[in-house]
Write a structure and sequence with these properties.
This protein is mainly α. It has 3 helices and no strands. Helix 2 crosses helix 3.
Length: about 60
Amino acid sequence: MPYNKLAELPKGVKSVLPYHAQEIYQAAFNNAWKEYRDKSKRRTNDNLETIAHEVAWSAVKKKIL
């Protein structure tokens, strides 16, 4: 499910990422959720939530590191 507020992010995300990185994570997760809702757009058989979290972490790494 998309995150409407940063406070809704998983504890594991909030506890390790600074505020700005949480914003990146939230935006990337929500975008991936919309993009990959259609199973035909997915490259793997992973569930939608797993894919969205992977995309979000990747976005944070790309923008922060």
